# Entry
Amino acid sequence: MNIIAAIQNTISITQFNRGLAGKIFQEVKQTGAKVVMKNNTPECVLLSPEEYVRLMDEVNDARLLTLAVKRMENFNPNNTIPENQVMNELGITDEDLSDFDEVEFE
# Structure
């Protein structure tokens, strides 16, 4: 990020104290995140709810991917149990499952 973009994306806490919160929130919705400065130090980051949800989704996806990669590192196909064996051990029949809808995985 260049200096101009950094300056455009920072606001002073004084602006909130002067009653400009509504204007600031509108700018966040239109142009993206803003860094709120207090005593020349970053205090917080303002994000739209949509941007926050998008970022949290990315974080969660990254965590799940990391977990999947770790699990696959230790995966040994010889240690898997066939579906029919699991169903027999748990006493589940195909008829028991016939009333359930299909499950889709992403």
User: Anything to note?
Assistant: The chain has a mean pLDDT of 87.
